[in-house]
Amino acid sequence: MLTFVVGKDGGGDDGKRVVAASPSVSASSTGVSPSTSPTLEDTAVPSPSASAPPAGYELSDDTEGFRIAVPEGWSRSSVASQHGIAVVNYRSPDREHRLQVYQVAEASPAASFKLYLSDQVPKPPGFRKLDLQTLDDGEFTGSRLEYVADSLNGEPDIGTWHVYDERFVAADGNIYAIAAYGPDADGSGSELTNLTTALDWFCPPYTTCDADAGTD
């Protein structure tokens, strides 16, 4: 798993750009109009050389340059970011599930979460941290935060949200985040599966990755 993300120091900056520490950037919170598309197929064409992701998922060669696997039929939107690539959101048709991809400004995944969990960064209403795992293993550098929130800015009122947010060093040496959001009432299994599938197939912008990864 996580073939596309390689433990490698680099990327990021001095951590002063707080926007990259926030896991939920929306048009309403930034004041920037999002770029939307009716369906994922309108903006993303799977790489012809890549093996197929699991059933129910499709590969997206995103216009921001990265490749990722997302559930079939999800739509895409993006919001300009102060650091690196735009913040890209993939949403289910009912808008109750979301995958978010963005580039992290801080010098490491651990530093990014330290900033996010500090008093310097506002949290969504009802925020409660459930777990924070360090996933470093010598070949991979990353951390995963699990939390719940009563509501998310710009998102529908579905009750409590359950979120997995992973920040990691990718094959290009930069640090990215992929976060999966969904209703806590449905259990967290689908969000964790969406996250790990997206990570399995993530290839950073303009980087050559193993087309057969994610099938082991």
From TrEMBL:
Residues 1-60 are annotated as: Disordered. Residues 19-39, 46-55 have a biased composition (Low complexity). It comes from the Bacteria. This is Uncharacterized protein. The lineage of its organism: Bacteria, Bacillati, Actinomycetota, Actinomycetes, Kitasatosporales.
